[in-house]
Amino acid sequence: MAEPASRMSKMEGKVAIITGGASGIGEATARLFADNAVRAVVIADIQDEKGQRVAESIGLNRCSYIHCDVADEEQVIYLVNQTVSKHGRLDVMFSNAGIMSGSDQTLLELDLAELDRVFAVNARGTAACVKQAARVMLERRVRGSIVCTASVAASRGGCWRTDYIMSKHAVVGLVRSASRQLGEHGIRVNCVSPSAVATSLQCRSEEELEEVRRIYEQNTSLKGIELTVRHVADAVLFLASDDSLFVTGHDLAVDGGLTKLPDEKK
């Protein structure tokens, strides 16, 4: 009987792009891909110094950085074309770049200009990444994997950050539609939906971060474990690799059972 593929070979020979790869979930995923024998991983972000440092620490022979604001499709096109020009193909797109609301954004006080800003990155930017990745995968006849970062906010309503919640619902809708449209070409499209993760982009202060951690810890069924960016990266690795060859259109919750609790306990 053949031995199962080792963990170290899950991304062997693959070329991947990670948007929002300079920090948080994106950085953790880039490092995990590198640990799993990826041929090349391209980090895209607007945090140039951080992105370059991450690429250098992983090793410039396998990791590079490109400035990209996903809200601008022309920059996404450049990112994808440069990756294919340099590496000859694209196997994995992890569309991870996203932003939070700048304020609480309740419905009656909804600032539509702020909503447009959030949607430009979270919804429109994700759509651009999926579209352009699918384009080159089709051109090169690559049966690739596209993974997007959604959120537990995409499966429920909320008392605040209405624009953010709306934008993440849009990501799940995109994944469901894209998976059906691209499946005939062998391209898989999935998303991960984490609950509160300790990242600098999600909270405006350490105090807010601790408060979010406390609230979510109380409202999960899985006790004694705090969600980290590595847990989310592990889920992305599964969806990006051949371990999930027959998985598409799936929203993988990484939330300690939060979305499965009865409403009165959430």
From TrEMBL:
Alphabetical list of InterPro entries matching this protein: NAD(P)-bd_dom_sf, SDR_fam
Any one GO molecular-function label of the UniProt entry:
oxidoreductase activity, acting on the CH-OH group of donors, NAD or NADP as acceptor
Q: Name one Pfam family in it.
A: adh_short_C2
State the similarity comment: Belongs to the short-chain dehydrogenases/reductases (SDR) family.
User: What is the name of the protein in this document?
Assistant: (-)-isopiperitenol/(-)-carveol dehydrogenase, mitochondrial-like
